[in-house]
Amino acid sequence: MNTLRIENGLLLTMVPGSAPIPDGVVVAKDGEITYAGAPDGAPDESAEQIIDASGALVLPGLVNAHTHLAMTLFRGYADDMPLRRWLEEKIWPAEMKLTEEDVYWGSLLGVCEMLRAGVTCFNDMYHLPQAATKAAIEGGIRACPSGVLLGFLPNAQELLETAIDFVRELQRQAHPRIHPMIAPHAPYTCPDGLMDKVRAAAHQLDVPIHIHIAETAQEVEDSYNEYGESPVQHLNNLGLFDNHVLAAHCVHVDEQDIQILADKQVGIAHCPGSNMKLASGFAPVPRLAAAGAIVGLGTDGCASNNNLDLREEALLAAIIHKGYTGDPTVLRAETVLAIATRGSAQALGLQDLIGTLEVGKRADIIVVDMTKSHMQPLHNPISQLIYAAHSHDVKATIVEGEMVMRDGQLLRVDEQEVIARACECTKRLLG
Ligand SMILES: [Zn+2]
After folding, report:
1. Are residues 180 and 205 both part of a single domain?
2. First to last CA, the chain
3. 396 CA distance to ligand 1 middle (Å)
4. 291 shares a domain with 365
5. Do 143 and 275 fall into the same domain?
6. Is residue 147, in this structure, part of any structural domain at all?
7. How many domains does the chain have?
8. Which of 108, 147, 198, 304 is the most buried (most CB within 10 A)?
């Protein structure tokens, strides 16, 4: 049995209503948390691996609710362009040349970056998803992989069949860190007939659907012109939300849309960095949260962010909504940390496994150093984490009870090799 014990840190379980626990103890056995709480009451037993978290915060790993991981290969390749031109002239032509090898090394590069930044789970939508899945399994991170269904491609039907086979194969393998989904790209790229097949397949396979919704004002305008209703209303009328759905963006949603998203408990991946960089707008997160919608946090792909640092995304969420609402009390540090952990977990439908440190959940845990000059003095640890920390303050990342990053060193992969191989792939793809 693999046993792990973390002690002496300031423990944030992220269980709603819980206070930070000084000198907290977390114990995990074979990847499952068996104790998380005060030192009095902790089991008096040793473990194979003991982490002394003195001077550090101990909290659930951050959960990246939306990305296109292998787009690390296009980081910085085509910046500061309008979305449509960016996709049509730069990204889609380059993606036509992708091989499994490219996606594997690009994904592994992203895995290295996320584990260093305290991200223990990511939700991926990208081509050749078997390669990203391999990278996630080898790198030691938790993943929700899926391919991308684009209805305008001549082989759309074949892609759907491949996506169904991909889910079936992963369900057969039942890897404890891999949770497949099925991913129609967006309502404007997938016609109703295909969406209906996706809905039926997701229901039959019992997996969530991962999709982009209402990212731009243009998308909403086009939807009204074509269907006489918003993208959210249209997908709701198609019955898509009768499955669990993870909807990235939801930037341009009206009151009726917000009510639908809340009533149907659609998980929303808020991606503030990408939305601002592509000038898409501000998702109405304070109103979504007030309506009872499930809100998580995502980075989106590295071509529109340009990193996978979810703590930075939490900072952006905390400050931009204050900026445009004129209200400095919206999305407090505590709220955005909850969004980046248990909010994202719930948005992915993984709330029974991850998102908080509680007995029975999987041991996805990070340890964040609070002793450096930019983190002192320490009045409020959560404020410090959101407003002052850097991603390299994460000193240990644990997934499924296994330490996969310690003191900046990745323990499962050769990071220098990954960087070199990913750069070779980029060179070949982009010339
Ligand atoms: Zn996206």
Report:
1. yes
2. 49
3. 28
4. no
5. yes
6. yes
7. 2
8. 108
What is the distance in A from the centroid of ligand 1 to the CA of 74?
14
Tell whether 327 is covered by a domain: yes
Query: What is the residue range of 36's domain?
Result: 3-59+361-410
Residues 191, 196, 197, 203: what is their CA dihedral angle, to the nearest 10 degrees?
Answer: 140
Say if CB 105 and CB 418 are below 8 A apart.
Answer: yes
CATH number (domain holding residue 250): 3.20.20.140
Please check whether residues 335 and 377 belong to one and the same domain.
Answer: no
Same domain, 375 and 343: no
Give CA–CA dist 242/281, Å, rounded.
Answer: 28
The pTM is what?
0.98
Same domain, 93 and 55: no
The DSSP line for 234-269 is HHHHTTGGGS-EEEEE--S--HHHHHHHHHTT-EEE
H/E stretch holding 249: strand 245-249
> 301 C-alpha vs ligand 1 centroid, how far in Å?
6
Residues 282 and 366 in one domain: no
What is the spatial distance between Cα 163 and Cα 254, in angstroms, rounded to a whole number? 32
Domain-ending residue, one of 322, 347, 372: 347
Q: Are residues 43 and 137 in the same domain?
A: no
Ligand 1 centroid–CA 300 distance in Å is: 5
Q: Residue 396: which CATH number?
A: 2.30.40.10
The answer to whether 416 touches 380, Cβ cutoff 8 Å, is no
Amino acid at 289: A
pLDDT 10s per residue in the chain (431 long)? 799 999 999 999 999 999 999 999 999 999 999 999 999 999 998 899 999 999 999 999 999 999 999 999 999 998 998 877 888 898 889 999 999 999 999 999 999 999 999 999 999 999 999 999 999 999 999 999 999 999 988 999 999 999 999 999 999 999 999 999 999 999 999 999 999 999 999 999 999 999 999 999 999 999 999 999 999 999 999 999 999 999 999 999 999 999 999 999 999 999 999 999 999 999 999 999 999 999 999 999 998 899 999 999 999 999 999 999 999 999 999 999 999 999 999 999 999 999 999 999 999 999 999 999 999 999 999 999 999 999 999 999 999 999 999 999 999 999 999 999 999 999 999 97
